[in-house]
Write a structure and sequence with these properties.
Rossmann fold, binds S-adenosylmethionine, alpha/beta, five-stranded parallel sheet, 2 domains, 274 residues, single chain, 10 helices
């Protein structure tokens, strides 16, 4: 059974659900039999959307985060949520969970983890943590205030990625493998310095990583996603107007001072001279 999903079947930070409609419309300008490579596949929502529109296209989804593991665990996730619903049934939706009920919730979660060796903490966070907060393991989860946001129906991903080829690799390797005139790249990298803690990549995406991605756009057909927070489009516009004279800092000397704001935060000021 094929269903047209307008959102990822499981909660996923950074999924492109707000772009599905516009992406779908823009696809008419692209061939129906091309190869589409979703380099930063995430929840697979873009790959799914292409395959639904162009069933004869070759669609490749880069499952860098092993999202398929979460999809495969949907029956367990549904079982866990089914066990939690009665515990929360007297509590209005979105309401904070009292300490007593919270203990029962945590007990059930622990029991499930022992039984199945796995709990989808991202989905559980979507059900019980404040909006857009995500835990990735029990300890993180048990440290948070809980709210009753459990969905009332089961999760279901039947047919979601049917016909889509799954791969798991660094985007650069995939790009090299598939670059050709008949490939369309879907390029939706992690946002610059946003919270990427639920993604596999442990390191923050730094400006350099973010700029490196632009290399895949040269001479390619692509969809590229970014936000005005990153100002990358503004930067590229500026570079275009500037006569290239090399790195203005080459041959200079750098010295720094560091200021501690509090226990967690500090910043470094930089002086450069030549
Ligand atoms: C903004 S999300 C993509 C969301 C996706 N378009 C969707 O609709 O669900 C960016 C994804 O890139 C992944 N990623 C991080 N580093 C990567 C790398 N080096 N190569 C490929 N993917 C990477 C992240 O783990 C995350 O899943």
């Amino acid at each position: 059974m094929n269903r047209n999903f307008k959102t990822s079947p499981l909660p996923f930070q950074g999924q492109k659900r707000r772009f599905v409609k516009q992406f779908n419309e823009a696809l008419v300008e692209f061939p129906k039999d091309a190869t589409y490579v979703d380099l930063f596949g995430g929840s697979g929502l873009l790959a799914h959307t292409v395959k639904q529109k162009y069933p004869s296209a070759k669609v490749i989804w880069n499952d860098y985060d092993n999202f398929v593991g979460r999809l495969d665990a949907i029956p367990q996730t549904n079982a866990l949520l089914a066990e939690l619903r009665p515990i929360l049934s007297d509590l209005p939706r979105k309401q904070r969970v009292s300490n007593e009920i919270r203990e029962s919730v945590l007990k059930v979660v622990k029991k499930h983890e022992a039984k199945y060796g796995y709990v989808d903490y991202v989905t559980l966070s979507g059900s019980l943590l404040f909006s857009a907060k995500y835990a990735t393991n029990y300890d993180q989860f048990a440290n948070e205030t809980l709210y009753n946001r459990v969905k009332l129906t089961d999760y279901n991903a039947d047919g979601y990625l049917d016909g889509v080829e799954r791969v798991q690799d660094d985007y650069k390797a995939l790009f090299n493998e598939y670059k050709s005139d008949s490939t369309v790249f879907l390029v939706d990298p992690p946002y610059l310095s946003t919270d990427t803690s639920t993604y596999t990549s442990e390191n923050y995406w730094r400006l350099r990583d973010y700029l490196d991605v632009l290399n895949v756009l040269d001479d390619s057909r692509y969809f590229y996603f970014t936000s005005n927070k990153s100002q990358i489009v503004e930067l590229c516009d500026w570079i275009e107007t500037r006569t290239f004279t090399g790195n203005p800092f080459s041959g200079s000397t750098m010295s720094t001072t560091s200021t501690r704001l509090n226990h967690q935060a500090s910043y470094t000021d930089i002086m450069i001279y030549k």
